[in-house]
Amino acid sequence: MNERTNKKYPAEAVQSEPRNADRSPGAVHEDADTQCTRPVDALRLARGSDRIPPSRANQTGRILAPVTDLRPRTARIKGKPMLRIALVTNHPPPFRIPIYNEMARTPGIDLNGIFCSPREPNRQWDLPPMRFRHVFLKERFVQRGSNFIHNNPDVFRALKQIQPDVVVTTGFNPTHLYAFGYALLRGIPHVPMTDGTDQSEQALTGLHKMIRRMVYARSRAFIAASHGGLRLYRAYGIDGVRCFQSCLCTDNDAFSLPHLLAPERKRYDLIFCGRIVQDKNPLFTLEVAAGAARRLGRRVSLLYVGTGEQDAEVREEAARQTEWVHVTFHGHASQLELPNLYASARIFMFPTVHDAWGVVANEACASGLPIIVSPHAGVAGELVVDGENGFVCELDAAIWADRLALLLTNDALYDRFSRRSLAIVGNYTFAQAANGIIDACRFAVGEPDSGKLDPAGRKWG
Predict the structure, then answer these.
(1) What class, spelled out in words, does domain 3-249+430-444 have in CATH?
(2) What would the CATH number be for the domain defined by 252-425?
(3) Dihedral Cα 367, 368, 374, 380, nearest 10 deg
(4) Span 226-285, pLDDT tens digits
(5) I need a surface site. Which of 102, 123, 173, 379 has the fewest CB within 10 A?
(6) Contact (Cβ atoms closer than 8 angstroms) between residue 329 and residue 298
(7) What is the pairing mode between strands 75-77 and 80-89?
(8) What are the CA-CA distances from residue 457 to residues 48, 391, 394, 398, 422 (Å)?
(9) Which residues contact 227 (CB under 8 A, 6 or more apart)?
(10) DSSP bridge pairs for 111
(11) CA torsion sign, 153 to 155 to 160 to 166?
(12) What is the Cα–Cα distance from 408 to 326, expressed in whole angstroms?
């Protein structure tokens, strides 16, 4: 490991990372900079209600988990104790970094990110500045299909240097289990965090589920990205009072601005944005576009944004469908390009075979687009509500073509769905996501609940 990891983290705020900062594995990066959700209303969960706003807190207060061996805070600023959080995760996604920056700006919070890798090989993300303390471990992983299994024993050394008050892990790779074991042996509260849902984890093997039960039985609090994640925890018998939500989100203002400034600038009928791979169903999108065109009696324009292993196959099929579909291939897009690309289209297509969530739907909603989505995405029924801001349809091309043709011919319905997308996504913010993680960590160490609902409240959607 790089020798820089031997130095202790200072308790005081640190300067932003210089432009030429060392990002080699093992290098410690110290930055300073900081905004889903409050704790979940356990009573409503127990009644089976899934329409809980991401920002909704339990207004009756929380019953704190019994903590008999609280350790003294390892970090202090101006004599006041800081809650030092070690968050162990695969790599820094661009939609999570603003959440971590927001946490680092929160008074009383000392966030330390531990990343298994700077970026997994199948990602082409442009990363925003990371204004929080973080370290990249020495890369060690094996690939299984599109998944990467990380195995970084040097996480022990990183945790020993950080001396956290609470350890958050975001998966069950060997590295995450090493961090869990470290917390267990040191008597440090552990908090698992998942993007998974009761649907996305149905196919797990008995061994995978056994490992989860073992970890969950020895964890203090739990963080889910969605209502589906909260149902997942409930399926493992976890009390709702110990569960918190930290939603997946994007920069809503950045995506809504082009839409609000030029709502008439729509060059394309529909947009597909994501990796051009089989699981994302890019060929299905083309089939639906052709079907809608036949129903409308005109050509439909389709924009593909992204790259992937099916790129050549999709281009070949597009060449055969030119009578009905005019296709534009943009290729990979940077984060700065995306808002204008979404704003150039009328409808977002999301026919995924399986996605635990789907941040592309956040981007589309923030751009004011109606969405047609499969029920196999975590956003279905939460961010995309059937009949409110889009349609949730099984992967039947005829049904999708009917829905697409309807939205392209019914202006009143289109406008209502568009406004509803903007309203619903307004609840999914970096501030709320950061608060969800912080509240879970404070609960885990036995601090009084700070996640009270603002008197004004916040209505879902």
Answers:
(1) alpha beta
(2) 3.40.50.2000
(3) 100
(4) 999 999 999 999 999 999 999 999 999 999 988 776 666 799 999 999 999 999 999 999
(5) 123
(6) no
(7) antiparallel
(8) 21, 28, 35, 42, 18
(9) 50, 52, 245, 381, 382
(10) 85
(11) negative
(12) 16
What residue type is assigned to position 425 of the chain?
Answer: V
Q: Which of 449, 434, 448 is nearest to 87 (CA)?
A: 434
The DSSP bridge partners found for residue 372 are 349, 391
Residue found under tokens 């050549």: 312
Task: Give phi and psi for 57, each to the nearest 5.
Answer: -110, 160
Ranges in the chain annotated CATH 3.40.50.2000: 3-249+430-444, 252-425
Amino acid symbol at 17: E
Q: At what angle do helices 282-296 and 397-409 cross, to 10 degrees?
A: 50
DSSP states along 141-163: EEEETTEEEE--TTHHHHHHHH-
Residue closest to 459 by CA, chosen among 433, 423, 410, 434: 423
Which residues partner with 84 through β-bridges?
A: 110
Q: Dump strand ranges (E) for 37-155.
A: 75-77, 80-89, 109-115, 133-136, 141-144, 147-150
What is the predicted pLDDT for the residue at 118? 81
Q: Count CA within 13 A, CB hemisphere, residue 210.
A: 3
